Amino acid sequence: MSVSDTGRIARDYHWTASVLGFRFVAWTIVGTLFAYLLNVYLTFWREWPGAGSAFGPDGSAAAWLQVLIYLLSIAVPAVFVVRSRDRTLRQDNETISAIAAYIARFAFWVVFLVGLADALISFLRVEELLEFFVGADITTQLGRSQFRAPYVHFPLILASLILAAVTRTLGFTWLALLVVVAELQIVVSRFVFSYEQAFMGDMVRFWYGGLFLFSSAYTLVEEGHVRVDVLYSGFTDRTKGLVNAVGAMLLGLPLCWVILVVGLGQSTAIITSPILRLEVSQSGFGMYVKYLLAGYLAVFAVTMAIQFAAYLLEGVADFRGDPGGREQEPDVTQ
Fold first, then answer.
1. 131-152 in b/e burial notation, b at 16+ Cβ within 10 A?
2. How many structural domains are present in the chain?
3. Mean pLDDT confidence for 81-94
4. Are 171 and 274 found together in one domain?
């Protein structure tokens, strides 16, 4: 075997190992993200002890099970990567992006369905028409978030999971239109009919917040975010891929994890607390969706973190010059 053949084999082995390594990192990011969310649910909603207590003097089986969830979030991606050696970086990039897109579609249907249903209930309560349709007892119960959330919101959230699976449009164009229509009807009803209620403004904020926070990951894929471009536009595709990969790891992912850890790390945290208490606005006849607005931040961080994991793979693929990316420009540095 010649020296050139030996060098080529060494390079091929190096590139194959690097592909597997980056794929493992990306899928581990996704796995640990969902493991963290599951443990947050078990700890604060199901009152499990938390993974950290497993290493204390009173470590219970439940605590060790939570530790096992984290270990599986690393082991499962490792097995998947090893058993799918033929998958490319771009294939994994597309799969991970599809996961982020599904979550975004799910969130869109939640804000659409819950927004319409809750606004209708609030309108009927304000106009004292709700009792005619559901009776006095249910009308009283619907005035409590502890009833409205599990019996109205949660079924619609489950329906949104199904709708997100059978639809492919992300719906952000429609959500933008809904925001405009909701704001327009406030203007018309206020200045033409002198009629305005708290739920009308709540609906605009509910949809407006969802539009900007849920579409962030999609905008990242489409290169739609504002970029302070001093040098980037002059880079070759290979250099752009390196910058994007490093930026995703050092800037994007840490930001998302800070939001999740600070917002969900304690029962009194800014995201966990409103959701646990099903918090609503001070206006009794407004929409009962304030706790979902807090959850918007979690959806934003989750979808962005998943998309940054995909962005990492895309950047590495561009750096390697793998086929299937943007139209390649000649690299004058080679």
1. eeeeeeeebeebeebeebbeeb
2. 2
3. 92
4. yes
| Most distant CA pair in the chain, distance | 89
Based on the domain organization, do 16 and 162 belong to the same domain? no
Distance CA 14, CA 171 (A): 42
Q: Which token pair is 203?
A: 């609906």
Whether residues 130 and 216 share a domain: the answer is yes
Average pLDDT over residues 235-246: 89
pLDDT category of residue 215 using cuts at 50, 70 and 90: confident
In the prediction, which pLDDT does 26 show? 96
Nearest to 113 by CA among 147, 78, 161, 54: 161
pLDDT of residue 1 exceeding 70, the answer is no
Domain that holds residue 315: 88-320
pLDDT reading at 310 higher than 50: yes
Backbone phi, psi, residue 50, to 5°: 100, 145
**Residues 80, 81, 85: CA angle, nearest 5 degrees:** 120
Is the pTM for the entire model greater than 0.70? yes
